[in-house]
Design a protein that fits this description.
protein biosynthesis; ATP binding; ligase; 4 domains; three-stranded parallel sheet; 468 residues; Rossmann fold; 20 helices; elongated
């Protein structure tokens, strides 16, 4: 086995990247990237009915959105069937596997008799030690000879040492009677040929590890380091499913969560580094280890997800955030930003990104940039525009005609008009918000004026004071 760490993500293409699969991919990616290793991608597409190019495309899109880049070509398990069969025949030649001619009817009869006698229903093939000279000219499967006594010990980095009695394991089928390899054989051969050193996957595969180790041992191949991670549960503690809401990663993109926030949240789901909740990709790569993975299932918590996403939006580079916002609009099937809106968003990001937890919230705050004249105030904002406030807006517009458009001057002009009218500035903020954004809740009125610029701000104030 090489000194270089090589991990893999090996999903079955079922149409989308499940949130649990996304976290498994992330853990493998972080472990490899943090150690200068390789992160490989294999599509387990042996189930031809479910494996379509569209399903594979959906998986790749999910990984691309999450920013989990892989090394080398995507491996197709189906295309390697000949290699898997070759290994089964090699095991046969070594005497580590055998041809089994038992029919389905004979296997069922064996199990019924075992049930009636209270014995184990694990099938014991009469062909295990049969003389090849007695083999009939009939269809057969190839089975692995599993040791019949002793234990198989899985040294797992998360679950600890797991001991399974060999009398609990049957002689697993490697090749079906039509010559096609089974999934359990394919996984081992692919992992070995790809040089995988660490298998980090869901703990629903823990029992598979014991059976797969039999193939490694029989072939004289090094067994990879195993780390079986607990599943993700819904907020109610039950296994995550559609009833909990979004289960596919692309649904989270459409809901407007930033990818960096999603990576951070998924990394914290079942793994911890002290009390750190918010961290960057660089920190995650440096800190991530198998020791920090918990043994019990983690619960999806949307409040925590939103909180972390809000922190990532606030900390993001403005240009990168705008780029991701545009990708969100595309994914959600919403209209693209116009050049004017893009320009305004770029200028206004400094006052938009604080306290926005998702892209829809960010756009809500940016309504003053998205809107175009004439501004139509909503019901709440319209209440702030009575005759008195219109008169005050008129005075403010005159005052601002020759202002130098710095925050200082804008504040001074607004305070001066408020004083003249014997009101506090707070009384003027409502009408100004209604004039500039048509909303009652907006960023600071001075930020909006600075982002919109002098000409646009004055035109909006004039239209509102004239009652247009």
């Amino acid at each position: 086995m090489s000194d270089q760490v090589i991990t893999r993500f090996a999903p079955s293409p079922t149409g989308y990247l499940h949130i649990g699969g996304a976290r498994t991919a992330l853990f493998n990616w972080l472990y490899a990237r943090g150690r200068g290793g390789k992160f490989l991608l294999r599509i387990e597409d042996t189930d031809r009915a479910r494996s379509t190019p569209e399903a594979t495309e959906a998986l790749l899109k999910g990984l691309a959105w999450l920013g989990l880049d892989h090394d080398g070509e995507v491996i197709s398990q189906f295309e390697r069937a000949d290699r898997h069969a070759e290994v089964a025949h090699e095991l046969l030649a070594k005497g580590a596997a055998y041809k089994c001619f038992a029919t389905q009817e004979e296997i069922e009869a064996f199990r019924e008799a075992a049930r009636a006698e209270g014995r184990s229903t694990l099938f014991q093939s009469p062909w295990r030690d049969a003389d090849p000279a007695t083999h009939p000219d009939a269809p057969y499967v190839i089975r692995l000879k599993t040791p019949q006594d002793g234990h198989t010990i899985i040294k797992d980095e998360v679950q600890g040492e797991v001991k399974i009695g060999n009398d609990q394991l049957d002689d697993m089928i490697l090749l079906r009677s039509d010559g096609t390899p089974v999934y359990m054989l394919a996984v081992v051969v692919d992992d070995h040929d790809m040089g995988v050193t660490h298998v980090i996957r869901g703990d629903d595969h823990l029992n598979n590890a014991a059976r797969q180790m039999g193939i490694y041992t029989a072939m004289g191949w090094p067994v990879p380091v195993y780390a079986h991670i607990p599943l993700i549960h819904g907020p109610d503690g039950k296994k995550l499913s559609k009833r909990h809401g979004a289960v596919g990663v692309e649904e989270y993109q459409v809901m407007g969560y930033p990818a960096a926030g999603m990576r951070n949240y998924l990394a914290r789901l079942g793994w911890s580094h002290g009390d750190d909740e918010f961290f960057t990709d660089e920190q995650a790569k440096e800190w991530f280890n198998l020791e920090g993975i918990g043994k019990s299932p983690s619960r999806l918590d949307f409040k925590k997800l939103e909180n972390i996403c809000g922190q990532h939006i606030a900390a993001a580079d403005d240009a990168a955030l705008l780029h991701e916002l545009e990708a969100f609009l595309k994914a959600a099937g919403k209209p693209d930003l116009t050049e004017v809106q893009k320009d305004g968003m770029q200028r206004g990001m400094y006052c938009l990104k604080d306290r926005a937890k998702t892209f829809p919230e960010l756009l809500e705050k940016a309504e003053f940039i998205m809107a175009s004249r004439p501004i139509q105030p909503d019901e709440k904002a319209a209440k702030a525009l009575d005759d008195v406030s219109r008169g005050i807006l008129n005075q403010l517009t005159s005052q601002l005609q020759n202002a130098s458009w710095s925050r200082e001057e804008l504040e001074a002009a607004a305070n001066s008009v408020a004083e003249t009218n014997g009101v506090k500035f707070g009384k003027m903020a409502g009408p100004i918000r209604a004039a500039l954004a048509g909303r009652a809740v907006t960023p600071s009125v001075f930020d909006m004026m600075l982002v919109l610029g002098q000409q646009e701000s004055l035109l909006r104030l004039e239209e509102a004071s004239a009652g247009e």
